[in-house]
Amino acid sequence: MSRYAIRRAEPVDAAGLAAVFARSFEGLAHLLWPGLETPEGVAAALQTGSEMLVAEDAGGAVVAAVRFGSDEGVLWFDSLGSIAPGAGRALVRAVERLAQERGLRQARTRIPSDERTRWVFQRWGFVPVAREGGAGRPETLVVERRLPLLTVREQRRADAHAIAALTGEDPWLFEQGARPGWFVLSDGERVAGVVAVREGRGGVARVAPPVLADGYQGRGLELWMLDVALRYAGTGGYHTAILVASPAIDLRRRDLEDRRWQRQDGPDGACYVRALGDERGVTGKDIRHWEEPRPPE
Fold first, then answer.
1. Residues 265 and 157 in one domain
2. Is 19 helix (H, G, I), strand (E, B) or coil?
3. Which of 114, 146, 178 finishes a domain?
4. What does DSSP say about strands 74-82 and 106-112: parallel, antiparallel, or unpaired?
5. Rounded distance, CA 28 to CA 118, Å?
6. Residues 166, 170, 171, 175: is their CA dihedral positive or negative?
7. Residue 59's CB: how many other CB atoms inside 10 A?
8. Residue 104: what are its φ and ψ, rounded to 5°?
9. pTM over cut 0.90
10. In this structure, are residues 157 and 174 in contact, taking their beta carbons and an 8 Å threshold?
11. Residues 238-255, buried b or exposed e (16+ Cβ, 10 A)?
């Protein structure tokens, strides 16, 4: 896991962001979004719709930042500045995760044309697709990376040992074939999470709390996984779903309530209850067009 905390930039970060950008882009102003070298310019950019991420060190100091957005199915980023080892890479990975969560398959940026920078981005999986500048202007490379598809799908035999590692279940059960009601969060070929709809009585489906691998927690992915599990339950003859409450699940209580889950206390402990019936999913729309939930408060 990254030793840096990644979060969205806020106007109060303007001075720290400007300092990072000014140090990182000395002599490379053509690659910095106009105005970001000053606190006033950063604040104006944030107030007019620019999205940025920052990386903080253990002491809470801003040590890296990046601006990003999406256009025509591609997530682009620019103004990637870093003054601490590894912080820039952590931000690039965070941007890639955002792209996956928004259903985007490509990440794109511009970099200096020198061999060192090109080598670093090639190590990160980016390949040059165009060259810009020349004729008296600084040369830059447009580089892209095709991202693994992040999706929630039915369990496969090949997932058996990954499921066992995450849940403690016997892998032999999954090696026999797909088990009804079991779904995995797949990051390309990697199994990054598991959720299951277990058999219930009287038309009630018991949904096992989603389990996520390290690096995937805290991103709201469990909500997406629960949406898929509920669609399965809703088309399988169940009229109600029950999800056992836990500290991790309670962090998403507001998001769950937005999806019509209701928290209840009972003799066996707290749980969330959801009436079923909408086969398209709890949001009333096709869950493939999933939106990133707000972060826990």
1. yes
2. helix
3. 146
4. parallel
5. 15
6. negative
7. 6
8. -95, 140
9. no
10. yes
11. bebbbbebeeebebbeeb
Q: Residue 260 corresponds to which tokens in the numbers above? A: 């019509």
Give the pLDDT of residue 2: 64
Q: Are strands 204-212 and 240-244 parallel, antiparallel or unpaired?
A: parallel
Helices (H), the chain: 14-24, 39-47, 87-101, 115-123, 160-167, 171-175, 221-234, 247-250, 253-258
Are 92 and 221 part of one and the same domain? no
CB proximity list for 19: less than 8 A, separation 6 or greater: 62
- Domain co-membership, 16 together with 103: yes
**Domain limits for position 193:** 150-275
pLDDT at 283 over 80: no
- Cα–Cα distance list, 15 to 2, 18, 27, 39, 284 (Å): 24, 5, 20, 5, 42
Looking up tokens 């669609």 gives 231
Tell me the C-alpha distance between 293 and 255, whole Å.
Answer: 7
For 9-58, write each residue's pLDDT tens digit: 999 999 999 999 999 998 888 899 999 999 999 999 999 999 999 999 99
Contact 129, 143 (CB under 8 A): yes
What is the token pair recorded at 187? 């990051």
Q: Are residues 84 and 171 in the same domain?
A: no
Residue type, 200: G
In the chain, how many domains are there?
2
* Of 201 and 117, the one with more pLDDT: 117
Determine which helix (DSSP H) or strand (DSSP E) holds 160, and give its type and residue range. helix 160-167
Q: Calculate the CA 259 to chain-centre distance.
A: 19
The tens digit of pLDDT for each residue in 164-176 reads: 999 999 999 999 9
Whether 24 maps to a domain, the answer reads yes
Give the tens place of pLDDT for each residue, 78-116: 999 999 999 999 999 999 988 887 878 899 999 998 999
